[in-house]
Amino acid sequence: MGKEASAMVARRSTSRRDWRRWWWWLLPLACCFVCWVASSAATVAPAAGVAVTSLPGFDGPLPFSLETGYVEVNESTGVRLFYYFVQSEKDPDVDPLLLWLSGGPGCSSLSGLTHEIGPFQFAAKRYYSGGLPKIIYQPETWTKVSNIIFVDSPVGAGFSYAATQEGSKTSDTKTVKQLVIFLRKVA
């Protein structure tokens, strides 16, 4: 009886390891599928954003092109995803477009824009002394060679919101569908 039980446990742990191995193949495949669906979409009216030329705390005009805005991804529930678009500083027409989604879930992509790969960051100070934080240009930015859209997703993350309580309900499936609609509208 002991040998049978240990053999059963070994089979279960092996099947779990197999699933984990396949999971790492399925995730990139799912991402490729989302990109393919978005790229093969019918033409939809582009999103209207606002060009940002200066920021409080930043000295002078921005040395890069920044656009922010909302894209409605579900009319019936009023779901609107907020985005930041930073144009490549090298050759925007040729350079690739990256979609940045912060992990969490529920984390704003503002963290990626200001703390990870974006073109500016908050000046590090040991102690906060009040007032506006100083913003400085980040010369080692991914926007030197790529266009990047930072999206607050799923709905409820960052500045993204829903006009109805029904629209605030999220799931992986809803989030992916909303991102596909978002990409179709901004493409």
TrEMBL record:
SUPFAM superfamilies reported for this sequence: alpha/beta-Hydrolases
BP term (GO), one: proteolysis
GO molecular function, one term: serine-type carboxypeptidase activity
InterPro entries assigned: AB_hydrolase_fold, Peptidase_S10
Annotated protein name in UniProt: Uncharacterized protein
Family: Belongs to the peptidase S10 family.
